[in-house]
Amino acid sequence: MNDLLIKALNRQAVPRTPVWIMRQAGRYLPEYRAVREKASFLEMVYTPELAAEVTVQPVDIIGVDAAIIFSDILVIPHAMGLEMDVFEGQGPVFEKPLRSVEAVEKLPIPQDSKLLQATCDAIRLTRTTLDNRVPVIGFAGAPWTLAAYMLEGRGSKTFQYAKSFLFNEPRAMHQLLDKLTRAVTSFLLQQIEAGASAVQIFDSWGGFLTEEQFRAFSLPYLTKIVDNLKDSGIPLILFARGANHSLQELAATGAHALGIDWQTSLAAVREKLGNQVALQGNLDPAALYAGPEILEVEVQKVINAYGNGHAHVFNLGHGITPQTPVENVKLLVETVRNYSPRFHAADEAILLQNGTPA
Amino acid sequence: MNDLLIKALNRQAVPRTPVWIMRQAGRYLPEYRAVREKASFLEMVYTPELAAEVTVQPVDIIGVDAAIIFSDILVIPHAMGLEMDVFEGQGPVFEKPLRSVEAVEKLPIPQDSKLLQATCDAIRLTRTTLDNRVPVIGFAGAPWTLAAYMLEGRGSKTFQYAKSFLFNEPRAMHQLLDKLTRAVTSFLLQQIEAGASAVQIFDSWGGFLTEEQFRAFSLPYLTKIVDNLKDSGIPLILFARGANHSLQELAATGAHALGIDWQTSLAAVREKLGNQVALQGNLDPAALYAGPEILEVEVQKVINAYGNGHAHVFNLGHGITPQTPVENVKLLVETVRNYSPRFHAADEAILLQNGTPA
Question: Which residues contact A166 (CB under 8 A, 6 or more apart)?
Fold first, then answer.
């Protein structure tokens, strides 16, 4: 198997930087759109054959070093009984958002949920199809991000309801976050059981908390999940978008890797964190709209910014957009393959083993 | 005149922390909505009597320490010939966005524009109505933010067109930013001439640039504007949302104050910057949805986070939302008035004069 990703996440020596792309199974691919024409988004998520089909597409077409299972962070709230609709261009909407302390108290933790099972079955199918070509990444939303969505009912510029609840009902908020922590843990362990070789937690709305709120309402639950998964031996990537005020605290959770958003300089992050965690990221997704010469330079800049060493996983700093030209995505992967080996000289491995910043 | 704001911006001793609120002349006020029912948003912006009326409202109703002129950052592009429409709930839209190098080359720098004159006339009227009760703040959008809007044509989650232009046509991008820098400078000087006692530059989309892009495409132009306004003797506030990677560089521009967004800890920012600039902010606007006891504590936390010293202007870390209850805004102002004097002990003034962090 191509084990570049797993080795890099474990900070072991690799001959080049591995690369995958957030939302790589997505609308920018004509092959994805062809599947999507025949099925709704949720049908794709909940039909293991379809989910597995689009999961494998970017491995075949783009040549990425990992497949991330096609699913959605909101399958957990859905499995907890929140009815969900997906409207084109608007994203998922919960018809009846969680809006009371009583609703939080009554909320069940999903057990043997068929909805969650579908993602695990999709992982099994994907592994069979991939036949060990590349590892499969499982994922879940972070408790705060899921709670924000469940309280708000939809994506939002302000998360008015979620933030009001946090301010006015902190005890119930913690109860909700605790239930979600248990649900996320159990779902990730099921995905690992089904064959995920790495997992990522998306705290997509981490940036909707102040530094103080993040440390009270998100970080402790991320820490618990990392602890709960430690025994699995499976590397875990934490991606808390917009929470750059807490990178040191996120590294201290014991996660194997941190996802870094594109606004942040990877050089500055590495200077701050050294080699204590692997770093994943962080090309500006808009660079994929640039001409090929410019794109190549932008990809090289990210690799330069990380510098020498093995604990870098190349990715975007946010999900790929539907408008991205496929040929640019191929060029990105090719550039990482060709340009990164010079940063993986043999002696770097020794430096890294000794824990010295390379 | 209540000169708390001007003194705090100039880092002079004040008996308490001054307070104003971004978008304080806005939809959360029934009195604003009453004016808005009779006129469109653009009619309000371009009718000095109406603009002055809503500008004064929060001084009378909420008791803030400054009036910020009711206008819009997009009056400059509008005055440069981009036709603008405002749709309810969507914000302004340019019918024909700037999409070519030729369009940038042809773009005129506004001279004697009636559109810009309206804001200056509104400042004159506001000063007359206020009769020196509180100072009037003028403002403009930052060159990058205006350019992003002009290229994109509307608000965006990705600023695809603006970012593509930045990558593919960097020379034309710099030409556009240079033109906007000249337009912003001239507009701010006109506002000062009309009676603005302080000015703020909003780089609202600063967070849509990477650290490297911000330093190449925004910071140099902010620096030029600060330089251009130095001789006016009028204090200038820079608010670059989401550009916390560059706070030290923003302070080094020579701006009198930096606006700080609500995600960031004011304590951490002050620790980093000391007393070299005044700091403005940074309550989470969502705290205004909280109950009164909780809101009071949240306001106090921001004042505590700044700590002892005179160079703090209390504000939100983002604009106030239309859903905010008016009584909470009054409570916010009252809390700043009552709680902040303890951080303004006489000896702090001496410390500050000597340049020692208080």
Answer: A173, A213, A217, B286
Asked if A167 lies within 8 A of B211 by C-beta distance, the reply is no
- In what helix (H) or strand (E) does residue A87 lie, and over which residues does it extend? strand A84-87
> In this complex, do A294 and B167 lie within 8 Å of one another by their Cβ atoms?
yes
Contacts of A287 in chain B (CB under 8 A): 167
Torsion of CA B86, B91, B92, B94, to 10 degrees: -110
Whole-angstrom CA distances from A222 to A112, A177, A199, A229, A242 are 23, 10, 13, 11, 15
Give the per-residue pLDDT at B357: 41
Note whether residue B105 is domain-resident. Answer: yes
Q: Is A158's pLDDT higher than 90?
A: no
CATH number, domain at B317? 3.20.20.210
**Cβ-proximal residues to B264 (8 Å cutoff; 6+ apart), any chain:** A210, A211, A245, B244, B282, B317
Domain membership flag for residue B156: yes
Q: Is the pLDDT of residue B355 over 50?
A: no
Pairing of strands B84-87, B91-94: antiparallel
pLDDT, position A323 = 93
pLDDT beyond 60 at B356 = no
* Confidence band, pLDDT 50/70/90 cuts, at residue A352: low
- Given a contact cutoff of 8 angstroms between Cβ atoms, the answer to whether A210 and B262 are in contact is yes
Q: Is residue A358 part of a domain?
A: no
Which residue type occupies B14? V
The dihedral built from the CA positions of residue B301, B306, B312 and B318, taken in this order, carries a sign that is negative
What is the pTM for the complete model shown? 0.94
Give the Cα separation of A184 and A145 in Å (integer): 12
In a domain, A228, yes or no: yes
Longest pairwise C-alpha distance within chain A: 59
Please, what is the Cα angle at B242 between A88 and A246, to 5 degrees? 100
Domain carrying residue B307: 4-353
CB contact under 8 A, A167 and B291: yes
Q: Which residue of B has its CA nearest to A243?
A: B263
Cα–Cα nearest to A85, from A126, A47, A40, A115: A40
Query: Would you say residue A238 has pLDDT above 70?
Result: yes
Is B23 an annotated catalytic residue? yes
The count of domains in chain A is: 1
